[in-house]
Specification:
heterodimer, A: 208 residues, alpha/beta, Methyltransferase, Methionine Synthase (B12-binding Domains), Chain A, domain 1, B: 452 residues, TIM Barrel, two-stranded parallel sheet, 17 helices, 51% helix, 7% strand, globular, EC 2.1.1.13 (chain A), cobalamin binding (chain A), Cobalamin-bd (chain A)
Chain lengths: 208, 452
């Protein structure tokens, strides 16, 4: 593991920025820096999955990655490098639920892993999800919720996607602590995720 | 109160108190903290219940009559006009901002900026009046405007009305159906108060890494005010536990919890236990990495609601010898499952975690609104069948209005202390009469400042 990947894994924020600046000075390409950071992000994900890191640590890794990307993006644009993308994910909190903390964590983690994320916000009606999946051609749709009164609404979105003829194109993940196998079956979704790392892993497997 | 209803009230409260204290009683109590099922089953919308106290009382009384086996329950709502008069931005209100059929929903954000710790710690009144309240109260956006003065005036009146509504509903439940309350009054862990209301999860996450000393100092600075707010809202007879909803521990590593959360939370809870109070604490999310600490608190004083993400059997092992726990029935089983599944689950819990006391059935901190009525019935019937310890009766309830001698509680803070006001008057009469009321209203006003 490189020094940059290690610094990111250890959430050593200052050191990450110092190393990025130093690498840029020495002429390293943004792609190389991103690739080393990705290695660090994967290590953070592993530490989270093995209960050595907790949610706020996972969130902070995405925060550091966001800052690094803000530094690198102008350089990538000016050098004409194509936008990196691991795939497109449409995500939103379902109708009648306005909670966005969980969704936002997943969005920032997906972005820090290179996904293009279409975030529809909160209280999103089924037709909006259908429209976004159709327009973007995304292979993954994430439905977020905190309230257990949203089970029927999540089912409703899955059915609306089916009625629109898009069900074959897209894998649907329901996410949030209220989700489990019983709820997944009830809604007709393909996967459920109780935490952001699981969600990102599913997105990666769909696009691999 | 008719004798029969009074006897019922005493049996229910005695049974509930004994379970919390880990003392023998006749059966496992049915004591739900938050029961959204009661609202949904009433046929009224959340908006109707939250805007009309008559309907609210009717919903609870009819629910108590329909399910007389319940020992206590609560519809965890607010009288919304209290929020409307100041245009409180931290909640989306049913019928006003969201569908009338939805619960109120909390809107978390960074209402306090990352560079405002110093001001908040050193001068909380200025911080709240000048920075925080204008951001979260729409009617206070233009400070000093006539509209803002009227909003404060209406808000003071509204809080008085809220107190009256809650007292009257509680008194009617006791007098008409013999139903006690599961909780009264509120305490918050300083870290939760800081992160829920002021900094938001994103803000506090960054602060723990970038300015940890300020987070610790802020929690210490908030503690005395939160203790006084709890004392002002708790049951003066100390029959009912003080409610605490814990929100952020499930996001924290054990090291973060031990550093930022636990020290001030523990100190506050211990201080109020010493003063004679008990607690009901909702352990939101998975508290598994932290809940061994609960065993450090005095035995039988802290009833803990275990959420669905945590394992009730592990909770029993970790601290069930010290405190009573509730939970164990998955919310999705109540919503999507069958009466047979609920019955089997309650039987299992009665025979294991509830075998020798120390357990109360519950969903994950609440009974979900979409619970099937037949599942709710199955839950109650199963407790009646499998939850008996003896033929009864349950012990008599206890109450104690006195604070034990030697207990030191933090001095309540005020904006204009009596000494300052006194110097502006000559006072030819009895100073004590004036002082007592001045200070009482100052303390109420200070608590108002903290209530947002």
């Amino acid at each position: 593991m490189t020094a940059l990947a290690e610094a990111l894994r250890d959430l050593n924020e200052k050191k990450v920025y110092e190393l990025v600046d130093k690498m840029l000075e020495q002429g390293a390409s943004p792609e190389k820096i991103i690739s080393e950071c990705n290695e660090g992000m994967v290590a953070v994900g592993d530490l989270f999955a093995s209960n050595q890191y907790f949610l706020t640590e996972l969130m902070f890794s995405a925060e550091i990655m966001k800052e690094v990307m803000q530094k690198l993006e102008p350089l990538m644009e000016s050098s004409g490098v194509a936008e990196r993308s691991a795939g497109t994910v449409v995500i939103g909190t379902v109708k009648n639920d306005i909670h966005d903390i969980g969704k936002n964590i997943v969005v920032s983690l997906l972005r820090s892993h290179g996904f293009k994320v279409v975030d529809l916000g909160v209280d999103v009606p089924a037709e909006k999800f259908v429209e976004a999946v159709r327009e973007t051609g995304a292979k993954v749709l994430g439905l977020s919720a905190l309230l257990n009164s949203t089970y029927p609404e999540m089912k409703n979105v899955v059915e609306a996607i089916t009625e629109a003829g898009l069900r074959e194109q897209v894998k649907i993940i329901i996410g949030g602590t209220i989700c489990n196998e019983t709820v997944r079956k009830f809604t007709g979704a393909d996967f459920y995720a109780n935490d952001a790392v699981t969600g990102v892993k599913i997105c990666k497997s769909v696009y691999s | 109160m008719a004798d029969e209803i009074k006897a019922l009230f005493n049996q229910r409260l005695g049974r509930y108190q004994a379970a919390i204290a880990l003392e023998p009683t006749d059966r496992i109590p049915i004591a739900f903290n938050t029961t959204y099922f009661a609202e949904k089953a009433s046929g009224y919308t959340y908006q109707e219940i939250m805007y009309d106290p008559e309907i609210w009382a009717k919903v609870e009384i009819e629910f108590a009559k329909k399910y007389p086996e319940l020992d206590t329950f609560r519809t965890n709502l607010q009288w919304s006009p209290n929020w409307d008069v100041v245009d409180y931005r931290l909640y989306k209100v049913p019928g006003r901002d969201i569908t009338p059929k939805s619960l109120q929903q909390f809107v978390e954000a960074e209402y306090m900026k990352e560079d405002e710790y110093r001001l908040m710690i050193d001068d909380p009144v200025t911080f709240r009046m000048e920075r925080y309240l204008p951001r979260i109260l729409g009617e206070f956006k233009e400070r000093g405007s006539i509209r803002s003065y009227m909003a404060f005036l209406k808000s003071g009146m509204a809080q008085g009305i809220v107190g009256a509504i809650n007292r009257e509903r509680g008194a009617r439940l006791a007098a008409e159906v013999g139903m006690p309350q599961p909780v009264m009054g509120n305490f918050a862990a300083p870290f939760d108060f800081l992160s829920d209301n002021l900094r938001g999860l994103n803000g506090i996450m960054r602060d723990m890494f970038r300015q940890p000393d300020n987070v610790i100092e802020a929690c210490e600075a908030l503690l005395p005010d939160l203790i006084n707010r709890a004392l002002a809202t708790a049951d003066p007879l100390k029959r009912y536990p003080i409610f605490v909803a814990t929100h952020k521990p499930c996001f924290l590593s054990p090291k973060q919890f031990d550093t930022f959360y636990w020290p001030t939370f523990k100190k506050g809870v211990e201080m109020l236990i010493e003063a004679g109070y008990t607690f009901r604490v909702f352990l939101e999310g998975n508290w598994g990495p932290h809940w061994h600490h609960i065993a450090e608190l005095p035995r039988g004083k802290v009833l803990c609601d275990i959420d669905n993400e945590a394992d009730i059997f592990e909770a029993k092992k970790a601290f069930g010898h010290q405190q009573c726990i509730t939970g164990g029935i998955p919310n999705e089983m109540l919503i999507l499952g069958t009466p047979d599944e609920v019955r089997a689950r309650v039987k299992l819990l009665c025979e294991t975690v509830g075998k020798d006391g120390g357990w109360i059935p519950h969903g994950g901190g609440h009974i979900p609104e979409d619970t099937k009525p037949e599942n709710f019935r199955a839950l109650i019937d199963a407790v009646m069948e499998y939850g008996r310890y003896s033929d009864g009766p349950p012990p008599e309830p206890k109450s104690n209005p006195n604070i034990p001698p030697g207990v030191k509680l933090p001095e309540p803070r005020v904006v204009t202390p009596w000494e300052i006001k006194k110097a502006e008057w000559a006072i030819p009469g009895d100073e004590e009469l004036i002082k007592k009321n001045w200070e009482r209203l100052e303390r109420m006003a200070y608590n108002w400042l903290l209530s947002w």
